[in-house]
Amino acid sequence: MTQGQILAADMAGNDEAERPTKDAMLRGARGRCPACGAGRLFTRYLKVADHCSECNEALHHQQADDGPAYLTILIVSHLGAPLLLASFVAWRPSAMTMLVAFGLGSIVLSLAMLPVIKGGMVGLQWARRMHGFGSRSSGVSA
């Protein structure tokens, strides 16, 4: 079944149609609607739109909650800790230099990764029909 056939079957109300998880997560990570990939997922920095502006898919069902924050902290800390150790061993910078450099780096990386991870989680929820994404309440016909 091609991507177009899957989307058409899903838009026709077929709740059994397969939703490709990888594609949905990649669309969400790019800040696009996990269903069509055209509409914007976020209305603000981390505020998920109630409905897609292109396909009218209901997106208000998402319940990402604290998951994106936990994953962001996990990834940033696992990237930062080895870099912190390696830079200290290699150059022996002052404590203040390391505090400022790694503090700012952690903040910037976290702010950049948070919407990407949240979008991916919303895409995962949509693809797996979690938290109310199982039925189409938008009334879109193919």
Short structural description:
By secondary structure, the chain is an all-alpha fold. It is built from four helices and no strands.
What does this structure look like?
- By secondary structure, this protein is mainly alpha-helical.
- The protein has four helices and no strands.
- Helix 2 crosses helix 4 (95-127).
- It starts with a helix and ends in a 15-residue tail after the last helix.
- Mean pLDDT is 88; it is low at 137-142.
Ordered list of secondary-structure elements with their pairings:
Elements (H helix, E strand, L loop, with lengths): L2 H9 L9 H9 L37 H25 L3 H33 L15
Helix pairs in contact: 2-4, 3-4
Low-confidence stretches: 137-142
Q: Which H/E pattern describes the elements?
A: HHHH
Shape type? elongated
User: Percent range for helical residues?
Assistant: 40-55%
User: How would you state the average pLDDT, rounded?
Assistant: 88
What does the main sheet amount to?
none
Indicate the proportion of strand residues. Answer: under 5%
DSSP E strands, number: 0
The N- and C-terminal alpha carbons lie at a distance of 16 Å
The oligomeric state of the chains shown is: single chain
Number of helices: 4
Calculate Rg over CA atoms.
19 Å
Strand-pairing-aware structural class: mainly alpha
Q: Main attributes?
A:
elongated, disordered C terminus, 54% helix, 4 helices, mainly alpha, 142 residues
